[in-house]
Write a structure and sequence with these properties.
Blueprint (H helix, E strand, L loop, with lengths): L1 E5 L6 H12 L2 E4 H10 L3 H12 L5 H12 L8 E4 L5 H13 L4 E8 L2 H9 L1 E4 L5 E3 L17 E2 L6 H15 L1 H8 L3 E5 L4 H13 L4
Parallel strand pairs: 1-3, 1-4, 2-3, 4-8
Antiparallel strand pairs: 5-6, 5-7
Helix pairs in contact: 1-9, 2-3, 4-5
The structure holds adenosine monophosphate (AMP).
Length: 216
């Protein structure tokens, strides 16, 4: 099965993806992480896209589609992907449908985490990401204590686009570009709406039961 995790910035997609990957033996594909890696490694692509990420705007569909083709065509990931933060607009959703068909796979479900804007801002401003293992924490709501995280504390960083100015743009981009994909997946009868304002564990219990009920 391939799964899509959707929702506004800061809705908890990365955190839930971490749980899902661990329990269902799936691989997480976060287009945001892939793009940040390019920037960190100072590649040509990284230099080209940096300003888009800094402004909270989407990078071009061609760039994203190329990243996705590389992953979907890799047999290692065959039907075992969880997409976090992709697709981000209708064009990407339609391209993904063509690609899964081409590589003889399918999207089994789309999980949309819904959270109100006020809570999201609090969550984003407290977010800490481990640059070593990729897990996401929150200074206030989900601190990275020893039970949950083994890496050295020096790896915990704040994302450069987690500031109040960029958050505003990212939220607007989400409302304008990404929200329309929900109807697209509702029409395909694979959309599940999830109240993402609850505790992390409560949300995960619901997600786990949805995924467990899917045919593999
Ligand atoms: P994220 O880590 O998902 O919050 O993404 C961080 C930033 O990366 C976004 O604000 C966009 O600039 C860019 N980005 C991530 N995924 C995509 C995508 N699927 N399409 C276009 N831009 C993306």
């Amino acid at each position: 099965m391939n799964i899509i995790l959707c929702g506004p910035p800061g809705a908890g997609k990365g955190t839930q993806a971490g749980h899902i990957v661990k329990n269902f033996n799936l691989y997480k594909v976060s287009t945001g992480d892939l793009l940040r890696d390019e920037i960190k490694n100072n590649t040509d692509l990284g230099n080209k896209i940096k300003s888009k990420l800094d402004q909270g705007l989407l990078v071009s569909d061609d760039i994203i589609n190329n990243l996705i083709v590389t992953i979907l065509s890799d047999k290692k990931y065959y039907n075992r992907l969880i997409f976090d933060g992709y697709p981000r607009n209708l064009n990407q959703a339609k391209s993904l449908d063509l690609l899964v068909k081409k590589y003889n796979q399918k999207i089994s479900c789309v999980l949309n985490l819904n959270v109100d804007k006020k809570s999201i801002i609090k969550r984003i401003l407290g977010r800490l990401v481990c640059t070593k293992c990729g897990l996401t924490f929150n200074k206030y709501f989900n601190p990275p204590n020893k039970d949950k995280h083994n890496c050295n504390l020096k790896y915990l960083k704040t994302r450069t686009d987690d500031n109040e100015n960029t958050i505003k743009n990212r939220f607007e981009t989400y409302a304008k570009e990404t929200l329309p994909i929900l109807n697209y997946y509702a029409d395909q009868k694979i959309l599940h709406k999830i109240d993402g304002s609850r505790e992390i564990d409560q949300i995960y219990v619901e997600i786990r039961s949805i995924i467990a009920s899917l045919e593999t």
